[in-house]
Amino acid sequence: MAGSESEVKPLERWLGFGVIVAQLALLVAVATRYRFESPGFQNSLPWIAGAFVVHHLLPARVRMHFFVVVSMATIAFVLGARPSGFDFASAFQNGGALLAIGVGLIAICHLPVAFAARVALLGLVGVILIATRGGFLAEGALPAVWPILGALFMFRLIVYVYDMQSAKERPPLVRSLAYFFMLPNAFFPLFPVVDWKKFSAGYASDAPLQLYQHGLHSMARGLLHIVMYRVVYYHFYIDSSQIADGESLLRFVLANFALYLRVSGQFHMIVGLLQLFGFNLPATNHHYFLADSFTDYWRRVNIYWKDFMVKIFYTPVAFRLRGRGVVLPVVAGSAAAFLATWLLHAYQSYWLRGAVFFSLQDGLFWLILGVLVMANAAWEAKHPRRRSLSKKIDWRATGMAALRTTGVFSVLAALWSLWSAKSVGEWLAMWAYVDADFVTGLVVTLAIVAACKVGVEVLEKGGRGDFLFGKLPRGARLGQVLPIAAATVVLPLAAVFLLGDARVLRRVDGKTRFVIKSLKSNQPNTADLRKMERGYYENLFDAANSNFVDSGAQAPADWIDFPEIEILKQTGDMRFWNFAPSRAEVINGYTFSTNALGLRDQEYPREKAPDRYRVAVLGSSHVMGWGINDDETFESLAEASLATARPDGRRLEILNFGVGGYSPVCQLGVMREGVLPLLPDAIYFVAHGVDGALAIERLARLVHQDIALEDEFLRDIVARAGIKRSMSQLAMQRELPPFAKELVAESYRVVGDLARDAGALPVWIYLPRITEQDANREAIDELRGMADRAGFITFDMSGLWDEMAVDDLAIAPWDMHPNAEGHRMIAERLEEIMQSDPRLGFSPQEQQ
Amino acid sequence: MADPNAVKSTIKNYILEEFLPGEDPDELTDSVEMMTLGILDSVSVMQLVTFLEEQFDVTFEANEVGAEHMNTLEEITKLVCSKL
Prior knowledge:
The complex is a heterodimer.
Chain A: H1 10-33, H2 39-57, H3 60-80, E1 81-82, E2 85-86, H4 88-109, H5 115-133, H6 145-153, H7 156-164, H8 173-180, H9 196-202, H10 208-235, H11 246-258, H12 261-276, H13 294-301, H14 303-320, H15 327-353, H16 360-382, H17 395-420, H18 424-430, H19 436-461, H20 465-468, H21 478-499, H22 502-507, H23 510-519, H24 526-537, E3 568-570, E4 577-579, E5 584-587, E6 590-593, E7 612-618, H25 621-624, H26 634-642, E8 651-656, H27 664-675, E9 682-687, H28 691-704, H29 712-721, H30 729-735, H31 740-757, E10 761-766, H32 777-789, E11 793-796, E12 810-812, E13 815-818, H33 820-836, H34 844-847
Parallel strand pairs in A: 7-8, 7-9, 9-10, 10-11
Antiparallel strand pairs in A: 1-2, 3-4, 5-6, 12-13
Helix pairs in contact in A: 1-2, 1-10, 1-21, 2-3, 3-4, 3-8, 4-6, 6-15, 10-12, 10-21, 11-17, 11-19, 14-15, 15-16, 16-17, 17-19, 26-33, 27-31, 28-30, 28-31, 31-32
Chain B: H1 4-18, H2 42-56, H3 67-70, H4 73-83
Helix pairs in contact in B: 1-4
């Protein structure tokens, strides 16, 4: 478009810029329609696009200054953003602290003392900051600052100070500030380790419009990666506990490997954004699924990380050993790089999430990958791999490369599944599911991988790769750029944009509409929601082991998870836990109080007065009201609204027996220990779609904890499933899925029988979770059928959330429980149900 | 003062022989980005450094072994000549 700017006429230059702005507008429209990636990113994109135009119009000498100002303003914007509006005080306080600490760290790198003294001082300050981030020095200080400070400085400071060792002169302050306070870091904490020298040397190293086109191509590529990631995440990914045969095993292995698309997508977006502001940086990833050796994978998957490791760890170690044979320097350098990679991933986890993450799978993953790369590198040192500058296609070599690629792909996919498994034992056990379906599916997958490898090799050798991968020749003119822009940015983005259009959605069938709508979601998928509920409940009373699923939205460090609340106490029976009576806590800013009966509710006398109509509501966290105030639960709202609605004049009292994590199996204990002694007139059993899965987990937990099973059907299922206390809980859970329906149906039957025997009316209500907007009709009907057969009066609230966006209903982006507005909607629907069906005793017809 | 063309020729011959056997020498121009294209990687660059140190009796620093100094034949030649 303009390699040599002076040769390009102003009209062509302005037309070229117009083409760039039009593409950027399309990209912003797609990112907004598909909610990429975080709300902070979506909200900032229009502002960034505007800043890009201003940046281009400014004189070249002040552009980097402008970039720094925009970056800092964006970081302050993110720090001050609150669901209720912008908090200027928070933005000022946190932004000021971030800037002060950051400038201080940069200043230390340039102190007029020996290099070793600067490194020692940085190390000391680093230890102080790490201790403060962990709350060891100042508990709870600046919680919003630490993740962003870590994202900005944790790795780049290492690169920067290393390069200052050999720097001939001090770099301009504005360049250092631009390097550390990079605009995309405000909303992408997981960030490629940009090299200082490449950052400096690449600035404005190409004609602006050519650089912008590269940036747009990178961003479009990133968006497409994230679309592919969402397809995998929402439609292929399964949790390891869902592996039941060869087909599901293959899904688990391949989908986990493919989830890296999100990282590469974000990295392409980041580099693209930086290119828009003049930083000519290379690609961060390059066809990493098509690596034909383990060293090749290491070179492709995260190029910036590999460069970081080579620069700081591999080269210094290998360099010291040079001359001592060919293999030793390579092996020693690689070992240093992989050891550092493992430790630095834990260090990164500490800065971004506030906790060091080490696990046996994690250590094994890096150990095995490191050994594979070292062995491969040692082999290559002795037997140099084939390299060529020729554009001729060598079909034999290409075929061999494709064959090697299938082998590398298989091993790495298996290795990634180890990283994702809950334990090494689980990972080893899951291979028992290998069957003919697994082998067939794997062969087909590998054939596709091999075909892609051959295709890419042919395109690259044949010279078409540059076009398809958006590479512009130096000095390209507008006429050369337009077809590349059309093919690599406009057409794919326009297709994705139109796919999400309401008019298109109306014309496709329900299943296709469901798939397209899922691409617009940035919420956890079903498997992760299950994990969230497990993570949320699983290690109750063992919160140290509770890991929050990485669903994109991270809870702040001071966010309290349900297992951590102090009101909980263990019961030692089928309920596992309930609430201590007459207690009050403030949890995540909300009041959470219990009455003398140990219920999250107002006070009621134990003895029911004759003029009262008592309803006991049974359920889990949705009934309990996680994340809202005491008086905002749907139970309390409905009670207040219908208090005097009964035609028989009895005043309504609704007792909230909801406790987080309760499954239908737990409700058997709740009925006997809590509900029946209070003589309710009706039992309202609130059910969810996950009840079957939760019941399996709870039964396995009961056996694992050796808690007495009071019901004959539970003992019978345990015997038939062949589960024993000596087995791991996970192994038990694997045996129970065939009994899930029976478990729920029998639990319903017993609850219904217990209610009727006590003279209470059993009522069953299906309450969808807020992410369940496309209801699984068949499964819900099946559950309702079980409740019908158990003698419940049944109601279905499916469709309750259909007109609402999930973001408007969730208590937080990282927690999908309904907020106060959600509870208000549930209460309204419950009141409709109670008043419309005469069997419940709230409608005038009943009196007649 | 060493002849840069002679230095370049020696380096080029070594690279062709060790890492690009059978390649047309004309394909390896002064500006081919060998690290970017994967001709030189972290393994082969260490072999190249060892060769350069022995051949020209020079010493490299660890921070010189990177794409910013050793990506092209021209850059490598310039680096070696600066030490002679």
